[in-house]
Amino acid sequence: MNFIKTKLTKVVQLGKNALYSTDTQKGLINKNLLTKLRKDTGYSFVKCNEALARFNNDTIKAEEWLHDQAKKEGWNKAQKLSSRSTEQGLVGVLAEKNFVALVDIGCETDFVSRNELFQNFVAATARLTLKLRKNVVLQNMNRSSLESQVGHLKEEIIKHHLLSSIEENSNLKLEELMANMVGKIGENIVLRRAIAMSTFSSNVIGTAVHGNVTGAVNDCLMGTYAAVVTIRPKSSCDVERAAFFAKGIAQHVIGMNPKSISSCSGISEDESLLSQDFLLNDKFTVGSLLEKENLEVIDFMRYALNDK
Fold this sequence. Notes:
Blueprint: E1 10-14, E2 18-23, E3 27-30, H1 31-41, H2 45-54, H3 59-81, E4 88-96, E5 99-107, H4 110-113, H5 116-143, E6 153-156, H6 159-163, E7 166-167, E8 172-173, H7 174-185, E9 190-198, E10 204-210, E11 215-217, E12 220-223, E13 225-233, H8 239-256, H9 286-293, E14 295-304
Antiparallel strand pairs: 1-2, 2-3, 4-5, 4-12, 5-9, 6-9, 7-8, 10-13, 11-12, 13-14
Helix pairs in contact: 1-2, 2-3, 3-7, 5-7
């Protein structure tokens, strides 16, 4: 017989398919409710069992209590764990049409960077970063009748503004969502940095990620390296072909880590994107390949985990 042990409850077997935990004051808790609450919230079976026992199988009240407890415990844990080193984590990149965001989220262990909750948080942070950039563009367009389209601009997002913004799925501030996750996972988690870019609708954005831990959650790519490249077609061309080269050059940026588009004061040719041999085909430099395809690099960004 399998048992679920908690400090407050004991477990009994009723028939072949029904497993219930009992609380002397609250009655029986169906295993199916317990399993569903665990799956829906991500909290431990012990906590879910306690919540259902407290509210006599009312899953709505049980979930509200779990979130409230996680918030309280999360803030306490976040404060206690804030001095711990966060050498692991993920960088995430999310592109939507002519907008793109890069974020860098740190945690303590490689194990947590593979955790679904942590990866969901990376994706949520990237989406919120993108939303903040879109809001700025929309406000500027509303203020000026001259600005009828999105121009090219990238900006570092102030961490305080991002952390105090509401994440729409949870309806919590990002810092509250992070505290809840700390309460669940039990590791220090930090937002290191975030950047967003918008560009002309005629331009093409390419993205790439790389690393021991890679994945995608809600269209947000993540790994230990991420890069973005914005390309301008010099003439009418196949958009899919331009996107193909934009992605390839983003992969090149991850591998070769150029410092600027072209050589300039303090930047050697070896460090300039256009002068470097193309990583995916060294018969060409990046510059000669772009010239052959009648394309131009407008901008690029690169994040690596723990970059200073």
